[in-house]
Design brief:
globular, alpha+beta, Alpha-D-Glucose-1,6-Bisphosphate, Chain A, domain 4, about 180 residues, seven-stranded antiparallel beta sheet
Length: about 180
């Protein structure tokens, strides 16, 4: 008997896992956004906890359905955005996870997920919280992608505007997590 997955199919892009320090595959534009969130390990831990429990996605306004309450490698998630019949579902699979390290030194925690068939893009997106030597805390989002089909390619400007909008929503969600806002 086979297990019923939340989303079907396999990861559908080259360079799987390359948001974890590698180069994006040729022909896939890459965008890196880094935003200051605050100071100290308490802030870092709050944001890490939110990232690794899907809370960042929820706070960005996405409807999140997942196979696991915690972000774990191989877990599948379907994020939905839009309203009613104009909702776009975006199925993904977690490709890597980095847990917070013990201790108070510079480090990062987060995860990346890659696209599955049915997603409007083909590629990968990583969400990391970073604390540096000066105890400054940053959200870093790294994404590389191409449109998945002609329909999304035709609406390229609109699709890129939507990507910028959701990135701004992720940043706002991370700011809420950093301050402990409910």
């Amino acid at each position: 008997m086979t297990e019923r997955r939340l989303a079907q199919g396999e990861l559908n892009y080259p360079g799987i896992g390359s948001t974890q320090g590698g180069m994006p595959p040729a022909g896939f534009p890459c965008l890196v956004t880094q935003t200051y969130l605050g100071e100290g390990h308490a802030t870092y831990r709050r944001v890490a906890r939110g990232i690794l429990s899907w809370e960042l996605q929820r706070r960005s306004g996405l409807r999140v359905r997942t196979e696991s309450d915690a972000v774990v490698p191989g877990a599948r998630v379907v994020s939905g955005f839009g309203v009613g019949p104009f909702r776009i579902n975006a199925p993904c699979e977690v490709v890597w996870v980095r847990q917070p390290a013990p201790g108070a030194g510079p480090q990062s925690a987060g995860f990346a997920y890659g696209t599955l068939p049915g997603h409007p893009e083909r590629g990968e997106e990583a969400f990391e919280v970073v604390i540096d030597e000066q105890q400054r805390v940053f959200l870093k989002i790294t994404a590389f992608s191409r449109h998945s089909n002609w329909f999304y390619t035709a609406g390229g400007l609109l699709a890129r505007a939507a990507q910028r909008h959701i990135t701004s929503r992720y940043i706002e969600g991370a700011r809420q997590l950093a301050t402990g806002e409910s």
